[in-house]
């Protein structure tokens, strides 16, 4: 498969650090990433299930999934397949067979900057899958492509080994190097927001974020 450039995976990230983000919401993470653009325009196609893992990036030609097939031979348990397909939705890049292969190899989920097919299979599954659209048309398998290189999705750069978190509100990614400090900031924000909700229910919130009234 000379048309696909296969590059080594990024160093593994501590699984405990990855797991710690399982209870973090993407809005809270996004807020603490200075509300930068992130992976916008993608929506979940799966039934339920949190996406948490590390990025295994794939660059493909629009409508061509040869590099994705090659990536599935290299993916590690806990990797998230991040496919930069240029946002093209004229042909599906993955379907039920590739989903089955990915699951059998411990892949944590799909993030596809393009289209999928067999959406009913994804909709009845808890295997996380985010994409732009669904379409019946199949892909080309000619290449070129590359794995484990920096890729751009909607203007947002994802690097191999970045931490990936997805939920009902979308997908965010960030470097593993900032994960500990980011997690601390997220937990602080979520605690503060929980306190605000309590104030609202108790009738002690006056409309200013975090302000406690005496009434």
From TrEMBL:
Its cofactor is a divalent metal cation; Mg(2+). Substrate binds at residues 95-98, 117. This is Putative 4-hydroxy-4-methyl-2-oxoglutarate aldolase. Keywords: Magnesium, Metal-binding. NCBIfam families: PRK06201.1. The keyword Metal-binding applies. Mg(2+) binds at residue 118. GO terms for molecular function: metal ion binding. Transmembrane segments: none annotated. The keyword Disulfide bond does not apply. InterPro entries: RraA/RraA-like, RraA/RraA-like_sf.
